[in-house]
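Margin note: ligand = pyridoxal-5'-phosphate.
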Amino acid sequence: MVLELKEKEAMNIKFENFIDTLDGEDIFGKCDRVDEVLSSGVLTGNEGLGMVTMNKVQPDSKIKEKDGHIHDVIMLGSNSYLNLSTHPQVMQGAREALEKFGYGMGAVSNYAGITEIHKELEARIAKFHGTEDCIVFPSGYGANIGIVSALCGKNDVIINDAANHASIFDGCVLSGAEIKVFPHRDMKGLERILSRLPEEKTGRLIITDGVFSMDGDMAYLDKIVELAEKYHCRIMVDDAHGVGIVGPTGRGTAEHYGVMDKIDLHVSMLSKGQGGLGGYCASTRKVVQYLRLYARSYFFSTALPASVAGGLNEVYKLLETDTAGRKELWEKTNYLKKKLVDAGFDIGHSQSAIVPVMIYNEPILFEMYQKLRERGVYVNIVTYPAVRRKECRLRLCTMKDLTFEQIDKAVEILTELGKEYGIIKK
Ligand SMILES: Cc1ncc(COP(=O)(O)O)c(C=O)c1O
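Resulting structure:
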């Protein structure tokens, strides 16, 4: 069943073995070595890289595999949870902005790269989180590296949940600050770190995802707020997967815990539930003003196209009134989770539209990922470096527009394969 295992070991194909240039090798040598592995036919879990999606984001999708083979899949691998990337009102907003301002901004924000449409978006997002102002970055990844590296430097300490998104860790490295990490959602671990910080280290930032992107669970923001107050820290929450989805009115993890006004930096991406592109930080007027000047991924990067900002204004109109279809999304999500648990899968502790299906065995994971697509289900594959190898998994993401029949069908196929590979009992 897992015949490729020996071959893989022989080729020593672990991701981390291709990062460094070997003695005597040119810097492109590692590219040759990666190419050799990827063209060998051995499964590496990266088969999605050359794949093409043939339609808009929607539950019934067609994909073209690397080898040109086209087939139908039920889409359980998109973060467009609310299907807002195809919402008629959102598309109309994008269309109007496109007609008015063209398809690119042609300059960074500081050099006349933003329009009234961008300003409206920032104001809407600030209002949504109850903050004074907001800065919108042209990319989500760029938002995190820009915010963290602008606000923190060599005199500061940043305390991270171990499962924070890669862009946060990259921002931490770029900042030059001291980096501390506590085990995922371990509040005792967090307090242990905080209690040992030297008194003179006064620049302290706790960063956590709101909803965690690989596990779908939520940070204990109530406890984090308590600890931040006790140990005089600022708090940044990246709620890329929570905004629009969790909380009584969809305002995210901070709303879920009733601590919206206690979060110093409300960060989210505009690319997931919001269905567009970009990232932001909603905070005080002064912090946002500082970021406009010192966040290099904002200052030195061309602004978001007006069409995307125009679509996002419509997205926020729907989110403000909680009319984006959150209830329907939760019906589908809860249905999927129940079916997976009933089938015997370990789905961790998801509290969101992200549903991990734990596999715990990389060779089996690679094969299941491949077979699922062949049999008509598209899911995400998650292993190192996104999570520890021994915690590898499939990641399913629900969408509001999925039908219950599609969910039934997908779980049926997953169950067949789960049994075949011994992940669940026959
Ligand atoms: C928690 C989190 N933060 C940041 C990002 C980066 O956002 P984007 O993909 O919009 O650049 C992602 C998505 O990959 C994410 O899941």
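Residues 139-141, 144, 165, 167, 209, 213, 238, 240, 269, 271, 279 surround pyridoxal-5'-phosphate (CB under 6 Å).
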